[in-house]
Design brief:
Elements lengths: L1 H38 L4 H6 L1 E2 L2 H6 L8 E13 L4 E8 L5 E11 L10 E15 L5 E12 L1
Parallel strand pairs: 1-2, 4-6
Antiparallel strand pairs: 2-3, 2-5, 3-4, 5-6
Keywords: Coiled coil
Length: 152
């Protein structure tokens, strides 16, 4: 009798533990579904709210544009992937759609990119910093840094 009662308790505990694991598994599935939906969400609000800014104005008055949702077009000059980000140096296009080698925008993008050096892209994100950049003449200049959320 004692063994049967003990076995019943063990069976109850196993069932209880199994149910707790199943509840945790279901919760994890739901959280992953939400994360998956978010990752596939279209970036339309980002695109529609992004301001096409004048590069020179941003470079000269960076403090006025920190945190601004912006977009720039330009040709990729360099691509530097790391474990957590891919850094691009972008030659920003001027108003006439000509690439200006002096207008450099450093772009931080979370993850890999499918574009290549020389590709003309549109980047969307926020201006969040500046950095020193050595241009082709060997001069140190201050250039804006964008945290990009979308590259097209």
């Amino acid at each position: 009798m004692y063994d049967e009662k003990e076995n019943q308790e063990i069976a109850k505990n196993i069932e209880k533990n199994y149910q707790a694991l199943e509840d945790d598994r279901q919760k994890l599935i739901e959280e992953n579904d939400v994360a998956m939906e978010y990752s596939f969400a279209t970036p339309e609000p980002l695109q529609s709210n992004a301001q096409a800014l004048n590069y020179t104005t941003v470079q000269e008055n960076l403090e006025n544009y920190l945190g601004v949702n912006a977009t720039f077009s330009g040709a990729i000059q360099t691509i530097s992937p790391t474990e957590s980000y891919t850094y691009l140096e972008l030659n920003v296009m001027s108003g006439s759609n000509d690439v200006n080698a002096e207008n450099i925008l450093v772009v931080e993008f979370p993850g890999p990119v499918s574009q290549y050096k020389g590709d003309v892209v549109q980047v969307y994100g926020t201006i969040h910093n500046n950095t020193t950049y050595v241009n082709k003449n060997g001069e140190s200049i201050i250039v804006p840094v964008m945290q990009a959320e979308l590259i097209k």
